[in-house]
Amino acid sequence: MKKTVTLTVILVSLLSCNFKSTALFELKNESGYQIDSLKIEASGVANTNYVTIASGGALDYEVDMTHTPKTDGHYIITYIIHGKSKSTPFGYYTNGTPLEVLQKIKITKDSLIFDAEFKKY
Q: Are strands 112-118 and 100-107 parallel, antiparallel or unpaired?
């Protein structure tokens, strides 16, 4: 019995150390301008992964949530468009883990359009 408990504790510890949580985003730039210095952060967690998206361009973007505090929060997208800095909070995550499988974000000249895809059970 003691060996089983010890083995279980070791196995759970090893598995939890290798757990990686990632939030996935699909970004499309339909603004007519280049998007500069774009980043997405989980609230309260700094991210220095800046990207640029050409006018009409698209790209996939990942946010590592592995070290996000196990609390509820939201995301923040910041970017520069046509010389103006924009910052918008959006979405929701719980226990430091994304709810969505994929967040699609369309950037237009004057707004952001969000479309989330969730797991199908």
A: antiparallel
Cβ distance 31 to 56 under 8 Å?
no
Domain count along the chain:
1
**Six token digits for residue 85:** 């800095």
Residue at 4 is within a domain? no
pLDDT band at 120 (very low <50, low <70, confident <90, very high): confident
- H-helix or E-strand containing 114? strand 112-118
* 5-54 pLDDT, tens digit each: 555 555 555 555 556 889 999 999 999 999 999 999 999 888 899 999 99
CB 45 within 8 A of CB 74: no
- Print the domain residue range for 106: 23-118
User: Tell me, what amino acid is at 47?
Assistant: N
Among residues 109, 100, 44, the alpha carbon closest in space to that of 79 is found at 109
- pTM score, two decimals? 0.81
Q: How much is the pLDDT for 119? A: 80
